[in-house]
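Hi C.,

You asked whether I'd gotten around to modeling the 112-residue construct. I have! Everything is below, sequence then structure, no commentary in between.
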Amino acid sequence: MFALMDIWHTILNIVHSADTIQLVLMAVVAIGAGFMMMELGALVQTTLVALIAYAVLTFIRAVALQHADASALLTADWKAFEAMTSLVLLSYAILFGVVIGVVSTVRGLVLG
């Protein structure tokens, strides 16, 4: 039970610490992946691709809107990924996976 509470608090921390643009990027990627997924059996693969797409869009946002140095940012992002704990990565995957699964199920029920 303690592990589930850790995951839940990490998910809440991700959502509450993100700014509006990050939340919109998360929603666009997850909803788009949910619409593109054909069957729930591909949820793990779709979630992995959605997480990679979110990372790329976040990088593009930092370079385009915040005028960050692309090579320095790429190095910093890679170092941050190496330092990321498995709890945070699992929480992102659960967050994206749940949204993708719900959107895909609703799309399947509505559109047939």
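If it helps when you're writing up: The two ends are 38 Å apart (CA to CA).

Thanks,
B.
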